[in-house]
Amino acid sequence: MALSLQQKITDPNQGVYLIGTTPPKADTAMDKTNRIAKKLLARLNEVEYDGLVVYDIQDESSRVSEDRPFPFQSTLDPRVYGQILRQQAKRDVITYKSVAQRDASEFNQWLSETKEDFQLDNLVLVGSPSSNGTIKLSLPDAYQQLSEHPAKFYLGGVAIAERHASKGNEHERLIEKSRQGCQFFISQAVYNAQATIDLLTSYARSCKQQNLTPQRIILTFTPCGGEQTLEFMHWLGISVPQASKYRILDAANPLNESIRICRDNLQQILLHCAGLDIPLGLNVESLTNRREEIDASIRLFRLLKATMELNLAERQVA
User: Fold this and answer.
1) Using CA atoms, how far apart are residues 279 and 16, in angstroms rounded to an integer?
2) What angle do CA 247, 284, 17 make, to 5 degrees?
3) pLDDT tens column, 196-225
4) Is 283 within 8 Å of 218 (Cβ atoms)?
5) Is 307 exposed, middle or buried (0-12, 13-18, 19+ CB in 10 A)?
């Protein structure tokens, strides 16, 4: 019998391979939404993956003063799209949820609907992008509300290596989030391998000191087709070393160069973190809806999955 996504994430001897996607625009008709889902899944027929991650896209303009490179467009409820994908793909879905916009009562209602109406069990909760603006519900309060809710969910959190690079305490956040119920983490897109290595090393060290078992950390990678996508990545807070920027911008084929950079970064992370006993996973996304970047993300997924599977097999033999 095939293992569920939850079973794979929980078992450190299993690989975990996910595809990240964004819901269509909010005004998309349901028949067109179904066609978009079918088109995505047809592209994914050529790869073996364990589940899908559906993001909750929010206007993060309060986080930075710079203009957003791509105009913000509200999207369909990720639960709607997640339910469609789960039914069509026959695979588990992880649904992101930004919690700051609803108070405790509204969030409790959202949880009930998510379980009863959408039959979705796997969540990643995300807090406010900044301390500016109205925050109706903090992330710790949302974790508390979820723990008291009668419906049971499999809960994940976000890991941000860039925050560790600037503040030095992301590993402590991960441990605290685990205490609050998180059973796995999904990283922000990785372009700075050293920042990720530093976070994983600090996390493993603190877990060992506190006699804790590290949770699985699923590393996110994304292809980059050129200058505008690089600007968007910078706006999102993704750290891209200058040398990597120049490699992409000066390449004859920026997308293929970005794929090579992602492979190099994953190999560095696997090499330096081999002895840390942190179960890792893979999530590949496309930051834009450009066809060439979506197709590149599938090539990237295939390459990085093979890299991780070889590493897992070598560890098990050793």
Assistant:
1) 9
2) 135
3) 999 999 999 999 999 999 999 999 999 999
4) yes
5) middle
Q: Around Cβ 67, how many Cβ atoms within 10 Å?
A: 9
Length of the chain equals 318
Burial 176-205 (b: 16+ CB within 10 A, else e): ebbebbbbbbbbbbbbbbebbbbbbbbbbe
CA distance 303 to 281: 14
What DSSP letter does each residue of 77-100 carry, written as one string?
-HHHHHHHHHHHH-SEEEEEEE-T
Phi, psi of 282 (to 5 degrees): -125, 135
Helix axes 291-317, 30-44, angle to 10 degrees: 50
User: What pTM does this model have?
Assistant: 0.93
Give the residue ranges of DSSP H helices in 91-192.
104-116, 139-148, 161-167, 170-179
Q: Which residues pair with 217 in a beta bridge?
A: 185, 280
Long-range contacts of 72-75 (CB under 8 A, 24+ apart): 73/25, 73/26, 74/25, 74/26, 75/22, 75/23, 75/24, 75/25, 75/26
pLDDT tens, position by position, 41-97:
999 998 999 999 999 987 655 445 565 555 657 889 999 999 999 999 999 999 999
Q: What does the alpha-carbon distance between residue 298 and residue 263 come to, in Å, rounded to a whole number?
A: 13
Q: Which two tokens stand for residue 212?
A: 């804790």
**CA–CA separation, 212 vs 205, rounded Å?**
10
User: What is the number of other CB atoms lying within 10 angstroms of the CB of residue 144?
Assistant: 15
